[in-house]
C-alpha cells in the first residue's frame, strides 16, 4: 500500500492528471492484480449476504416502490431485479436502483468504519447489474466487486465526510464507478473521467440520517449506484468530467470538506498489488446500525444480571464520538426517544436498541421494530433512562488504523435504585472477524436461510447458493441467473403500474 497526499491546488498551480487522486484510483482499477482464494471466498459471502437481506425486505414499501420504478424500464438482455423472475430483464441502472434499495432497507449487510462510515456491499448491485446487461462472466464480476470494495474502503480510511455533514455515498459512487470500470476492462483514461463524474454528482447532506429519518436512507446508496452507472455510460461515449475533482480550488475538498488548507493521506494499493480491503469489512448479525452490534451482544450478556427492570435508576453507555453523536443522545434528536418514530429512526437510536435488547436478550429484524414493541410502556420507561457519553479512549479505539485493535462498542454502567452498579463492556460484536464468533460461510448461509424462510422455495434456495458458490467459474449466461426469485404471487408490485410518472 502507498499513501497519496491529496490537497487543494490553486488553478495557477497546475496538477498533472497522473498526480490526481482520481487517476490513481483509475490506475488500480485497470491493473491486473491477482485475487487470492480468501478474497474470492469473502466476495461470495457478501453476495449471499446481500441477497438474504434484500429478499427479507422485498415487500417493504420503499423496496416495492423502487421495484415498481424498475419494472417500468424493461429491457431485453438487461439485468434482473430481486424477487422477479429471471426471464424478466430491466435496464441495468434501474435494476441497480431497485436492488440497491432492497439491500439497504433493513440496514443489515456489511459495514466498514474508519474516518467515515460505509456499507461496501452497496457496490455490488450496480456492478452485478452492469455485468448482467453487458454479458460478463463470473471472473470479470469478481474483479469488479474487488475493485469497488478496495476503493471504497481506502477512501473511508482517509477522508471524513460526516464532519462536514456530507452523506457517505460520496465515497460509494466513485468506488462503484471504478468497479464498473474494472468489470468492463475500460481504459485508465475512461475510468479516470468516470470516477470524477461520480464524485461530482454524489455529494449530498447527512440530513438523510438526521432527525426524522425517512425511506431515503435506503434509497441513497441505490441512487449513488445509479449515478455511477450513468457516469460510466457517459464517459464511454467520450464525455469528460470536472477536473481535478478532489484537488480543484473550487471542488469538493476546498468547499465541501476540509477547505483550501485541507490535506488527506489516502492509502491505495500499488499498481499490480492485491486488493484485499474486503477482508477488513464486517457484516451484521443484527438488523441495526453497525455501532449498535456489539452493544446488542453486550445487552444480551447483561440481561441475566437484571432481576427486575423497574429497579434500574439509569443506564449510561460510554462510547465513541461517532456512536454518541450519531445514534446516541449526543445527536440531540428528540425523535430517537419517540415511541412513534419510524423504523429508520429507531434503527439509529442506541437508547431504544439497548433497551429492547436488554429486555428481550435477543434482536429480530421485524419484531424488535414493531410499533407495539416500541410503544410498550415498560420499554419506553427503560429507554428514557438510557444516555450516552463520549469516552476519549473508545474514540481512539474506533479510529485505530490496525484492524485488529479497532473497537466499536462501549462500556455500560447500569445504576440500580439501591445505588449498586452493574458494569460491563464489549469492544467488537460477536460476529466481527475479531469477535467471539466470527462469521464464516455457514453463518452467511444460515442468515440467508433465516431471512428467506417462508419467502422462497427450497429449490430456489439451493439453485442460488449453488450458483454463487461457483462464482469464479460462472459463464455470462449463469451470471444473468445470479438472482433470487420469489414466487410471483408472494411479491407485491410485481407488474407495471400507473401510480407514478414512469
TrEMBL record:
<keyword id="KW-0456">Lyase</keyword>
<feature type="domain" description="MmgE/PrpD N-terminal">
    <location>
        <begin position="20"/>
        <end position="263"/>
    </location>
</feature>
<dbReference type="InterPro" id="IPR005656">
    <property type="entry name" value="MmgE_PrpD"/>
</dbReference>
<dbReference type="InterPro" id="IPR045337">
    <property type="entry name" value="MmgE_PrpD_C"/>
</dbReference>
<dbReference type="GO" id="GO:0047547">
    <property type="term" value="F:2-methylcitrate dehydratase activity"/>
</dbReference>
<dbReference type="InterPro" id="IPR042183">
    <property type="entry name" value="MmgE/PrpD_sf_1"/>
</dbReference>
<comment type="similarity">
    <text>Belongs to the PrpD family.</text>
</comment>
<dbReference type="Pfam" id="PF03972">
    <property type="entry name" value="MmgE_PrpD_N"/>
</dbReference>
<protein>
    <submittedName>
        <fullName>2-methylcitrate dehydratase</fullName>
        <ecNumber>4.2.1.79</ecNumber>
    </submittedName>
</protein>
<dbReference type="InterPro" id="IPR042188">
    <property type="entry name" value="MmgE/PrpD_sf_2"/>
</dbReference>
<feature type="domain" description="MmgE/PrpD C-terminal">
    <location>
        <begin position="286"/>
        <end position="472"/>
    </location>
</feature>
<dbReference type="InterPro" id="IPR045336">
    <property type="entry name" value="MmgE_PrpD_N"/>
</dbReference>
<dbReference type="InterPro" id="IPR036148">
    <property type="entry name" value="MmgE/PrpD_sf"/>
</dbReference>
<dbReference type="Pfam" id="PF19305">
    <property type="entry name" value="MmgE_PrpD_C"/>
</dbReference>
Amino acid at each position: 500500500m502507498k499513501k497519496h497526499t491529496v490537497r487543494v491546488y490553486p488553478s495557477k498551480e497546475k496538477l498533472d492528471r497522473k498526480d490526481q487522486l482520481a487517476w490513481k484510483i483509475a490506475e488500480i482499477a485497470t491493473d491486473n492484480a491477482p485475487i487470492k482464494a480468501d478474497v474470492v471466498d469473502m466476495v461470495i459471502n457478501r453476495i449471499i449476504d446481500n441477497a438474504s437481506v434484500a429478499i427479507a425486505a422485498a415487500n417493504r414499501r420503499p423496496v416495492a416502490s423502487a421495484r415498481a420504478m424498475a419494472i417500468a424500464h424493461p429491457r431485453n438482455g438487461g439485468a434482473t431485479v430481486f424477487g422477479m423472475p429471471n426471464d424478466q430483464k430491466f435496464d441495468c441502472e434501474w435494476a441497480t436502483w431497485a436492488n440497491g434499495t432492497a439491500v439497504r432497507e433493513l440496514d443489515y449487510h456489511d459495514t466498514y468504519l474508519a474516518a467515515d462510515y460505509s456499507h461496501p456491499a452497496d457496490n455490488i448491485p450496480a456492478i452485478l447489474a452492469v455485468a448482467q446487461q453487458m454479458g460478463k462472466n463470473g471472473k470479470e464480476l469478481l474483479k469488479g466487486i474487488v475493485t469497488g470494495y478496495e476503493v471504497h474502503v481506502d477512501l473511508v480510511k482517509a477522508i471524513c465526510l460526516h464532519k462536514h455533514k456530507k452523506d457517505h455515498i460520496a465515497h460509494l459512487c466513485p468506488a462503484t464507478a471504478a468497479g464498473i470500470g474494472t468489470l468492463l476492462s475500460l481504459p485508465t483514461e475512461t475510468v479516470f473521467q468516470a470516477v470524477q463524474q461520480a464524485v461530482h454528482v454524489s455529494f449530498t447532506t447527512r440530513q438523510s440520517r438526521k432527525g426524522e429519518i425517512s425511506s431515503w436512507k435506503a434509497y441513497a446508496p441505490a441512487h449513488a449506484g445509479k449515478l455511477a452507472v450513468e457516469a460510466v455510460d457517459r464517459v464511454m461515449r467520450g464525455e469528460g468530467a470536472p477536473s481535478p475533482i478532489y484537488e480543484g480550488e473550487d471542488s469538493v475538498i476546498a468547499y465541501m470538506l476540509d477547505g483550501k488548507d485541507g490535506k488527506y493521506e489516502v492509502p491505495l494499493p500499488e499498481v499490480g498489488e492485491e486488493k484485499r480491503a474486503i477482508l477488513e469489512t464486517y457484516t451484521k448479525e443484527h438488523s441495526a446500525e453497525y455501532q449498535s452490534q456489539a452493544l446488542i451482544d453486550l445487552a444480551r450478556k447483561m440481561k441475566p444480571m437484571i432481576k427486575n427492570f423497574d429497579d434500574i435508576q439509569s443506564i449510561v453507555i460510554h462510547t465513541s464520538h461517532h456512536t454518541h453523536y450519531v445514534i446516541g443522545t449526543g445527536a440531540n434528536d428528540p425523535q430517537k426517544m419517540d415511541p412513534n418514530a419510524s423504523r429508520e429512526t429507531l434503527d439509529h437510536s442506541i437508547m431504544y436498541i439497548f433497551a429492547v435488547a436488554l429486555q428481550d436478550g435477543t434482536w429480530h429484524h421485524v419484531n424488535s421494530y414493531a410499533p407495539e414493541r416500541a410503544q410498550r410502556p415498560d420499554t419506553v420507561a427503560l429507554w428514557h433512562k438510557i444516555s450516552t457519553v463520549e469516552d476519549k479512549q473508545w474514540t481512539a479505539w474506533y479510529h485505530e488504523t490496525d484492524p485488529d485493535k479497532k473497537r466499536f462498542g462501549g462500556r455500560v454502567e447500569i445504576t440500580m435504585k439501591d445505588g449498586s452498579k452493574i458494569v460491563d463492556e464489549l469492544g467488537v460484536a460477536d460476529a466481527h472477524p475479531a469477535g467471539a464468533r466470527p462469521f464464516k460461510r455457514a453463518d452467511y448461509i444460515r442468515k440467508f436461510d433465516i431471512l428467506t424462510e417462508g419467502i422462497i422455495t427450497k429449490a430456489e434456495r439451493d439453485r442460488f447458493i449453488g450458483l454463487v458458490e461457483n462464482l469464479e467459474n460462472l459463464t455470462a449466461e449463469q451470471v444473468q441467473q445470479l438472482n433470487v426469485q420469489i414466487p410471483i404471487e408472494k411479491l407485491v408490485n410485481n407488474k407495471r403500474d400507473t401510480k407514478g410518472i414512469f
